[in-house]
Amino acid sequence: MTKLVYCIFYGISTLPFKVLYAISDLLMPLLYHVIRYRRGVVRRNLVTSFPEKSTREVVAIEKEFYHWFCDYFLESIKLLSISDKELNRRLRIKNPEVHEQWYLKGRNTAGFLGHYCNWEWLSRVGKDMNPERRVCLIYDPLHSKAIDYLFLRIRSYAPTGVPTPKKDILRQLLTWKREGKFSLSGYIADQSPKWENIHLWLPFLNHPETPVFTGAERIARKMNDAVYYVKMTRPRRGYYDVEYVPITDDPASLPDGEVTRRFFKMLEQSIKEAPAYYLWTHNRWKRTKEEFDRLYTVENGKVKRRADNA
């Protein structure tokens, strides 16, 4: 089954971009009008994030989002067979040299990114790096073995890009350090944490209290990484630009949570500039601070369920 799924998607990936985008154009009305995939979640997220926008403006963003979402899926599949020549033409890294300056000083780097533009294409940023360097592509293994294998192949990029399960991040980074290999760690840092992993609430997209992960910041502090925001833009269909924007080169010197705060401010600005390219299908604000305070308490930095709600 795993090989069959891979072969099917690999075959799709060999189609030219023009054909893939024609398929996307057909998928969009099916997903939006017929299946109505998470329409309620998307509309609620857009309305609450942009209260200043009219219904007409929200609907326009909503439709553009679903069109991009179909593009995102097929663009990701394309990574299975895209040539380096085509990739270099479509994915432009504006300042890849920023990492090498730290590697030459004996330091690693970390890139914080969100579910914005095509984050799967960021698995290829190692194309402009010294082949001796490594890009630690952190991911959460999927339940389906076939789909998990498919995305591992999508995200792998020899020799630099190495998909790494989130439970193995520190082990992998420390192994490379012992081997003298310098690395860029890529963290999708805007995921919605489970109750027991909520250690910080931040204002984000007109929501005064948004629960956020701080794991990426904690690892960057432990490893003393120079931290960058991975700013991705889409100048036109099928083309992406990437710029590494400094967050801090001394994360341990900042108050707890400050690296995460800076990242979310930068991500929010990107979203406001082109809102259709954010992953609005996630029910990002389903957990509230009021409910958290009612059900949980924080003791010595650990989240624990209150005894009367156990």
General description of the model:
The protein is α/β, with parallel strands linked by helices and 310 residues long. It contains 11 helices and 11 strands. It has helices at residues 2-13, 17-35, 39-49, 55-78, 84-90, 97-103, 145-155, 169-179, 215-223, 258-273, 289-295; strands at 91-93, 109-113, 134-139, 161-165, 183-188, 200-204, 207-212, 226-236, 239-248, 296-299, 302-305. A 7-stranded mixed beta sheet has the order 1-9-8-2-5-3-4. The chain has a two-stranded antiparallel sheet with strand order 6-7. β10 and β11 (302-305) form a beta hairpin. α1 packs across α4 (55-78). The radius of gyration is 20 Å and the shape is globular. The relative contact order is 0.15.
Give a quick account of the main beta sheet: strands, pairing sense, barrel closure. 7 strands, mixed
List SSEs in N-to-C order: HHHHHEHEEHEHEEEHEEHHEE
Rounded to the nearest angstrom, the radius of gyration is: 20 Å
End-to-end separation in angstroms reads 41 Å
Count of discrete alpha- or pi-helical segments spanning 4 or more residues: 11
Q: Overall 3D geometry? A: globular
